[in-house]
Design goal:
single chain; two-stranded antiparallel sheet; 49% strand; globular; mainly beta
Length: 190
Amino acid sequence: MIKCCSFDKKDIEFNDNELRHFANYKVGDTIYFENVLGDIDTLEIMGFENYKYDKCGGFLAARPSNTRGVSIKHLPKDNWHGTSQDMSKGGEIEIVYQGLLWVSKHPIEKTIEYSFDFKDFYAYSDSILGEYHSETLTLNNISLTNYYKVKHGHPEKVTDPSHIEFIYWTDKDGLVAYQNKGGQVWTKKK
Protein backbone atom coordinates (compact mmCIF):
# COMPACT_ATOMS: atom_id res chain seq x y z
CA MET A 1 0.00 0.00 0.00
CA ILE A 2 1.34 3.43 -0.99
CA LYS A 3 1.13 6.13 1.65
CA CYS A 4 0.33 9.76 0.84
CA CYS A 5 3.93 10.89 1.15
CA SER A 6 5.82 7.85 -0.06
CA PHE A 7 7.23 9.35 -3.23
CA ASP A 8 10.64 10.37 -4.41
CA LYS A 9 11.11 14.15 -4.59
CA LYS A 10 12.49 13.80 -8.15
CA ASP A 11 9.04 12.55 -9.18
CA ILE A 12 7.39 15.85 -8.20
CA GLU A 13 10.04 18.31 -9.42
CA PHE A 14 10.08 19.41 -13.06
CA ASN A 15 13.17 18.47 -15.02
CA ASP A 16 14.72 20.48 -17.85
CA ASN A 17 12.99 18.32 -20.45
CA GLU A 18 9.55 19.13 -19.00
CA LEU A 19 10.33 22.82 -18.52
CA ARG A 20 11.43 23.23 -22.15
CA HIS A 21 7.78 23.76 -23.09
CA PHE A 22 7.86 27.10 -21.24
CA ALA A 23 11.35 28.25 -22.27
CA ASN A 24 10.22 30.37 -25.23
CA TYR A 25 7.77 32.45 -23.19
CA LYS A 26 8.63 35.58 -21.21
CA VAL A 27 6.17 37.76 -19.28
CA GLY A 28 5.17 40.74 -21.42
CA ASP A 29 6.06 39.13 -24.76
CA THR A 30 3.63 39.84 -27.58
CA ILE A 31 3.22 37.05 -30.12
CA TYR A 32 1.67 37.51 -33.55
CA PHE A 33 0.00 34.91 -35.75
CA GLU A 34 -0.95 35.55 -39.38
CA ASN A 35 -3.10 33.74 -41.93
CA VAL A 36 -2.60 33.73 -45.72
CA LEU A 37 -4.98 36.69 -46.06
CA GLY A 38 -2.70 38.83 -43.89
CA ASP A 39 -5.08 38.90 -40.92
CA ILE A 40 -3.22 39.18 -37.62
CA ASP A 41 -4.05 37.49 -34.32
CA THR A 42 -2.16 38.72 -31.25
CA LEU A 43 -1.58 37.42 -27.75
CA GLU A 44 0.44 38.61 -24.78
CA ILE A 45 2.17 36.44 -22.18
CA MET A 46 0.69 37.53 -18.84
CA GLY A 47 2.56 35.26 -16.45
CA PHE A 48 3.32 31.84 -15.07
CA GLU A 49 1.40 30.04 -12.40
CA ASN A 50 2.77 27.35 -10.12
CA TYR A 51 0.84 25.13 -7.75
CA LYS A 52 2.69 22.57 -5.68
CA TYR A 53 1.16 20.21 -3.12
CA ASP A 54 3.80 18.03 -1.49
CA LYS A 55 2.66 17.81 2.14
CA CYS A 56 1.01 14.93 3.95
CA GLY A 57 -2.43 15.58 5.25
CA GLY A 58 -4.36 12.38 5.55
CA PHE A 59 -7.47 11.21 3.78
CA LEU A 60 -8.85 14.60 2.73
CA ALA A 61 -5.54 16.21 1.73
CA ALA A 62 -4.87 17.37 -1.80
CA ARG A 63 -3.24 14.75 -4.00
CA PRO A 64 0.51 15.46 -4.25
CA SER A 65 1.17 17.29 -7.50
CA ASN A 66 3.23 20.00 -9.12
CA THR A 67 1.59 22.15 -11.80
CA ARG A 68 3.00 24.90 -13.99
CA GLY A 69 1.11 26.98 -16.54
CA VAL A 70 1.58 29.98 -18.80
CA SER A 71 -1.25 32.54 -18.92
CA ILE A 72 -2.13 34.54 -22.02
CA LYS A 73 -4.24 37.54 -22.94
CA HIS A 74 -5.70 38.00 -26.41
CA LEU A 75 -5.25 41.44 -27.99
CA PRO A 76 -6.77 43.90 -28.74
CA LYS A 77 -9.90 42.43 -27.11
CA ASP A 78 -9.77 39.39 -24.84
CA ASN A 79 -13.00 37.40 -25.14
CA TRP A 80 -11.56 34.30 -23.47
CA HIS A 81 -10.69 35.45 -19.95
CA GLY A 82 -12.71 34.87 -16.83
CA THR A 83 -13.03 36.58 -13.48
CA SER A 84 -12.91 35.51 -9.86
CA GLN A 85 -13.90 37.26 -6.68
CA ASP A 86 -11.42 37.19 -3.80
CA MET A 87 -13.34 37.54 -0.55
CA SER A 88 -10.09 37.71 1.42
CA LYS A 89 -9.43 41.00 -0.41
CA GLY A 90 -12.82 42.58 0.28
CA GLY A 91 -14.55 40.98 -2.71
CA GLU A 92 -12.06 42.32 -5.24
CA ILE A 93 -12.71 41.07 -8.77
CA GLU A 94 -9.63 39.62 -10.47
CA ILE A 95 -9.16 38.74 -14.12
CA VAL A 96 -8.28 35.10 -14.77
CA TYR A 97 -6.46 34.79 -18.08
CA GLN A 98 -6.47 31.71 -20.28
CA GLY A 99 -3.78 29.16 -19.47
CA LEU A 100 -2.23 28.32 -22.83
CA LEU A 101 -0.40 25.26 -21.49
CA TRP A 102 -0.57 23.49 -18.14
CA VAL A 103 1.77 20.67 -17.15
CA SER A 104 1.01 18.66 -13.99
CA LYS A 105 3.15 15.98 -12.36
CA HIS A 106 1.67 13.42 -9.97
CA PRO A 107 4.50 11.72 -8.06
CA ILE A 108 2.60 8.84 -6.47
CA GLU A 109 1.33 7.61 -9.83
CA LYS A 110 4.51 8.85 -11.60
CA THR A 111 2.37 10.45 -14.30
CA ILE A 112 2.39 13.74 -16.13
CA GLU A 113 -0.60 15.53 -17.67
CA TYR A 114 -0.74 18.23 -20.34
CA SER A 115 -3.64 20.55 -21.06
CA PHE A 116 -4.08 23.34 -23.59
CA ASP A 117 -6.58 26.16 -23.54
CA PHE A 118 -6.39 28.55 -26.47
CA LYS A 119 -9.42 30.57 -27.60
CA ASP A 120 -12.13 27.94 -28.19
CA PHE A 121 -9.57 25.11 -28.30
CA TYR A 122 -9.14 22.67 -25.41
CA ALA A 123 -7.11 19.48 -25.22
CA TYR A 124 -5.97 17.21 -22.41
CA SER A 125 -3.50 14.33 -22.44
CA ASP A 126 -2.23 12.10 -19.70
CA SER A 127 1.33 11.33 -20.79
CA ILE A 128 2.10 12.91 -24.14
CA LEU A 129 2.03 16.49 -25.32
CA GLY A 130 0.39 15.57 -28.61
CA GLU A 131 0.96 13.47 -31.71
CA TYR A 132 4.69 13.79 -32.48
CA HIS A 133 5.89 14.20 -36.09
CA SER A 134 9.50 14.23 -37.27
CA GLU A 135 8.81 14.82 -40.97
CA THR A 136 8.65 18.35 -42.38
CA LEU A 137 5.28 20.07 -42.72
CA THR A 138 4.80 23.42 -44.43
CA LEU A 139 2.02 25.65 -43.13
CA ASN A 140 1.59 29.04 -44.81
CA ASN A 141 5.06 30.56 -44.66
CA ILE A 142 6.76 28.23 -42.17
CA SER A 143 8.20 24.72 -42.24
CA LEU A 144 7.91 22.57 -39.15
CA THR A 145 10.05 19.57 -38.27
CA ASN A 146 9.91 17.75 -34.95
CA TYR A 147 6.53 19.14 -33.96
CA TYR A 148 3.45 18.05 -32.06
CA LYS A 149 0.01 18.15 -33.61
CA VAL A 150 -2.60 18.47 -30.88
CA LYS A 151 -6.21 17.66 -31.70
CA HIS A 152 -9.15 19.32 -29.96
CA GLY A 153 -10.11 17.31 -26.88
CA HIS A 154 -13.82 17.50 -27.72
CA PRO A 155 -14.09 17.18 -31.52
CA GLU A 156 -17.89 17.06 -31.28
CA LYS A 157 -17.78 20.72 -30.15
CA VAL A 158 -15.82 21.83 -33.23
CA THR A 159 -18.87 22.63 -35.35
CA ASP A 160 -18.29 26.13 -36.73
CA PRO A 161 -15.70 26.73 -39.50
CA SER A 162 -13.99 29.29 -37.23
CA HIS A 163 -13.52 26.81 -34.35
CA ILE A 164 -9.91 25.71 -33.82
CA GLU A 165 -9.45 22.04 -34.66
CA PHE A 166 -5.66 21.59 -34.29
CA ILE A 167 -2.71 23.39 -32.77
CA TYR A 168 0.94 22.83 -33.69
CA TRP A 169 3.64 23.00 -31.02
CA THR A 170 7.42 22.70 -31.02
CA ASP A 171 9.80 22.34 -28.09
CA LYS A 172 11.79 25.31 -29.33
CA ASP A 173 9.00 27.81 -30.10
CA GLY A 174 5.89 26.61 -28.24
CA LEU A 175 2.65 27.37 -30.11
CA VAL A 176 3.67 27.87 -33.73
CA ALA A 177 0.40 27.45 -35.63
CA TYR A 178 -3.25 26.57 -35.39
CA GLN A 179 -5.91 25.50 -37.86
CA ASN A 180 -9.65 25.99 -37.76
CA LYS A 181 -12.35 23.60 -39.00
CA GLY A 182 -12.66 25.68 -42.18
CA GLY A 183 -9.03 24.83 -43.04
CA GLN A 184 -7.63 28.30 -42.37
CA VAL A 185 -4.15 28.17 -40.83
CA TRP A 186 -2.56 30.85 -38.65
CA THR A 187 1.24 30.75 -38.22
CA LYS A 188 3.53 32.48 -35.78
CA LYS A 189 5.32 35.49 -37.23
CA LYS A 190 9.10 35.57 -36.72
